[in-house]
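[Meeting: bench + compute handoff]

Bench side (C.D.) handed over the final construct sequence. Compute side (W.E.) agreed to return the predicted structure before the next meeting so the bench team could plan truncations. Sequence as handed over:
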Amino acid sequence: MRIGFFPPFVHGTGQATGMRRRSFLGLVGGAAGAAAILRSRRAEAAFGTFPSDALQAQLPVGMRAKNVLEIFLYGGLSPWETLYCVPTYGTPLDPMYPNQQSYTFKSASDAMIATCGNTGVTPSSLGNDALGMPVQLGPFAAKLSARTDVVQRLRVVVQKHNLEPHEAAVPQALTGRPVGQPTAAGLGAHVQRARIDADTASNTMRSAPYSYMFATGGISSDNVAAAAAAGAHPGYARPLLIKTDNAAGFTSLLSRPTVAKRSEQDALVKAYVDQYQQRLTWPSQGRVRSPRTDDLAVAFQTTTNVDAIAALLKTDSGGDLFANIAGNACAVSSGKDIPFIGLNAAVHLLTHPAAPASYVCVSDTGIEEASGGGGYDTHTANAHDTAMNFDNMLQALLAKINGPSETDPTKLNLSDTMIILNTEFGRTPVAQGGDGRNHHPYGYATAFIGGPITGTTIAGAIGPDGTAAGMNYATPAQNRMAALLALGIWPFAQEAFAVSDVPGATAELAAALSTIQFVLGRTL
């Protein structure tokens, strides 16, 4: 394995002893060490900087999000009972599409509403979609509907693509790129690169990462590992990846237990790295480009700053940030609620007083896995598993968002944090087998909460046949671009996105303004 290359889930055995030191270097990207590399490139524009002819598309500072929490609903969330419900579609008397969408498993869904303790909650209206149809949150989003303060900062976005397998759809949802493209990078890599470049331009630097990814064991490596991919970015852009269900295996390595004399070894490795850097340097013209050498320098510098990273991965009282949390949702109990643990750690990092994260992605595989794996791959038991896992996620998330009268600094403030509920695709509007739904990327829903989002709105439309109507949808790439624009990061670069990623756009400025208007609901 080459240093700086990210091997998806190299410690996939789930055992602490399964991760070697070289694997550790591959997992720990970060801010530390990037400054020395970037100082020799001051003439280059920092990644994410808005060009002078595109400032019109830059959100005002007061409108931007300071950081992003992304919750990846792994498996493919059924929108009909959660984020996109048109009560007049799919009724038993519908002449063309009877017993579809929210009516496919109506009796089972009603039973789960009671089981989850959500009886009597009125679903929140999202307004009319692009077809003029009234849309509301589904019955399994009752806990979200009950938080009117959060719903007032909610925008549901209709999305569409044509990839049905998880192995292709998950990386595209997380990177905005189809499988196989060398530029495919997770949102965290774009964010970390932009933040580090900005720090370097202002002669500041910190040891802690800006981006984190909390994944879960049991998920195949060609899926959620894409969230930590660096693509064409330098190695220092790579987010810090931690397997939530085996965090002890990672945190134990931060103490570097196999190194008897840390200072002596670090001095020796530094001498070797410096020596090699000198061999790549022309006396009067500077150092030649060598991405792999850059990655080596970053990996080495990061190992010398592990104490700073270890300090971040502790609670305010010095305890284990990934300590076990039991969960209970819809009459299902778990002694170890992995999504809850991940969200708890994510909020801690996003609200850290000294080194707040700019981006954290949490993979939600449910309090219990669905039949197809993950939390939402409901090939059977769609009503039960979707209700249980979506309710569990909402419990954990909403408990960590300040209410109207709260000012708790350890909770999320929606004026600072934008939350993205993302998923690789939706589920079919009709049944698969007796009580399940199949994969359906042709019309599904994601959600943006807080940051620049104001009001309760919906973007796009899904028609009565269950597919996105006309061009009234966003692509996975636009989802990623919108998050960057919300953070004040310009998304167009050879390492990121192109004009062609926005349907109908012919210039970068128009593509940015179109994405801001459609996905974020803002007109500049």
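W.E. noted at the follow-up: The chain is about 30% helix and 10% strand. C.D. will use this when planning the next construct.
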